[in-house]
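Worked Example 4.2. Consider the chain below.
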Amino acid sequence: STRSGDNDIWTINPTDASNLTQLTFDNSEELQPEWSSAGDYIIFASDRDDNGAINLYTMASDGSNVVRITPDGSTDQQADWK
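Applying the procedure from the previous section yields the following structure tokens:
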């Protein structure tokens, strides 16, 4: 969602639209989130490291423990857990 001014990742209860929770909080673009099959991690694309590329990151489902998983200089998007 861009409701915070940037493309950030949010969760929401799809049944009744309750529990809207923002998971990312920086001035970069977080895009294309995908849940792991167990629902405990999210993989997403972002330009948050300001290295001229879009890299892939993982984070816990609560937004903690963000880890870049692709190297500098590469541009990676549309990740999948398969």
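Strands lie at 10-11, 21-22, 30-35, 41-46, 55-60, 67-68. The first strand starts at residue 10 and ends at 11. Compare this with Example 4.1 before moving on.
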